[in-house]
Amino acid sequence: MTDDVRNVRDALSTITEYWQPHRLTSINDYDVKVVKLHGEFVWHTHPDTDELFMVVSGELTIQLRDRDVILGPNDVFVVPQGVEHCPRATGEVHALLFEPKGTVNTGDAGGDMTSELREFA
């Protein structure tokens, strides 16, 4: 990982596919990822880690089995480890994710939406 300055907006402007996280930088054992979201993801859990969402633009709904959490720009929400959730965006959302290195985007669900973490040049 480089020690260069990274710009969140510039990084997001290069992403062309939804639900494909890109590593912006790393800190200790965590990745800071940028991602564009649209539509509904898959229900899944991360059995061994929490997952932090920070919305940069748009409105993101984190569906939980007992409620929906709605995030707007600059809102942050942590999904506790082991809690089943399903992100949904009716319009385009730009977001940051903070997760331990190696965390798979679909958690324990797997499937077609599983993405390899992408790197910026």
Provide structural commentary.
- This protein is mainly β.
- It has one helix at 8-13; strands spanning 22-27, 30-40, 51-57, 60-64, 68-71, 76-79, 85-100, 118-119.
- It has one domain: Sandwich (Jelly Rolls).
- Helix content is 5%, strand content 45%.
- Strands 1, 2, 3, 4, 5, 6, 7 and 8 form an eight-stranded mixed β-sheet that branches.
- The longest helix has 6 residues, at 8-13.
- The protein starts with 7 loop residues before the first helix and ends with a strand.
- The mean pLDDT is 89.
Gist of the model:
5% of the residues lie in helices and 45% in strands. It has one helix and eight strands.
List the SSEs and their pairings.
Layout (H helix, E strand, L loop, with lengths): L7 H6 L8 E6 L2 E11 L10 E7 L2 E5 L3 E4 L4 E4 L5 E16 L17 E2 L2
Parallel strand pairs: 1-8
Antiparallel strand pairs: 1-2, 2-7, 3-6, 3-7, 4-5, 4-7
Class by alpha and beta content: mainly beta
Succession of helices and strands = HEEEEEEEE
Profile the largest sheet: 8 strands, mixed
What percent strand? over 45%
Mean pLDDT: 89
Keywords:
121 residues, mainly beta, Jelly Rolls, eight-stranded mixed β-sheet, 1 helix, 8 strands, 45% strand, globular
